[in-house]
Write a structure and sequence with these properties.
The relative contact order is 0.20. The chain is 47% helix and 23% strand. Helix 1 crosses helix 5 (102-132), helix 2 packs across helix 5 and helix 4 (88-100) runs antiparallel to helix 5 (102-132). It has a single domain (3-191), classed as 3-Layer(aba) Sandwich (NADH Oxidase). By secondary structure, it is of the alpha+beta class.
Length: 194
């Protein structure tokens, strides 16, 4: 089974339960739709990273106080600010089905989340290949809103990456990304030998 299907099943909350045929069919249709609708884009920038003993991090000019992020980035000398989106057409399609067919909307929402996650994994793998040539490895993505890494840092990341201009990614006053099927994150870069 496609990893996006497995992930979408998890997002739908099936756990270990068997997925019925109707839902599986909706999922397959949704993934085909996403292939046609998604306008996948991503942007990243690499910054020097400094950490202090009290969990304070400086990533370029971004100052973050987060013990969880500091733990994830411990030992890293550089940080990658990363943003990715599936574009506005996916949001429009989900909203359309919220009116026409709520079951389809729920399934499409889960499939879009899984599709976005797979895209982010693919882009991070490409970055990992670049850094591997330098003898470096990458830590897992860590997004605003996880643990004590405040979601308000979403604004800093969008500004530093110029996402509005480069990939059409903005946010609401409540720090929610627009288009909704989008991600921002920080990825640590560390020397593999250390």
């Amino acid at each position: 089974m496609d990893i996006r299907m497995r992930e979408a099943i998890r997002y739908l909350g099936y756990g270990r339960s068997t997925v019925d045929e109707k839902t599986l069919q909706l999922m397959k249709e949704s993934l085909v739709e996403l292939e046609q609708l998604a306008k996948k884009k991503f942007v990243y920038r690499i910054f020097e990273l400094e950490e202090s003993d009290d969990g304070q991090l400086m990533i370029g000019k971004l100052n973050v106080k987060s013990r969880d992020l500091a733990k994830n980035l411990h030992g890293c000398k550089r940080g990658i600010l990363f943003a990715a989106t599936l574009g506005v057409d996916v949001d429009r399609e989900i909203r359309k089905y919220e009116v026409l067919n709520i079951s389809k909307a729920v399934v499409l929402q889960a499939c879009a989340a899984a599709y976005l996650e797979a895209y982010c994994d693919e882009m991070q793998e490409k970055l990992a290949e670049l850094f591997h040539k330098e003898g470096c490895s990458l830590r897992p993505r860590f997004s605003p809103g996880y643990g004590d890494f405040f979601i308000s840092h979403q604004e800093d990341i969008l500004r530093m990456l110029e996402t509005s201009k480069k990939i059409g990614l903005t946010m609401t006053e409540a720090y929610m990304l627009t288009p909704t099927k989008s991600v921002t994150a920080i990825i640590g870069v560390y020397d593999t030998k250390e």
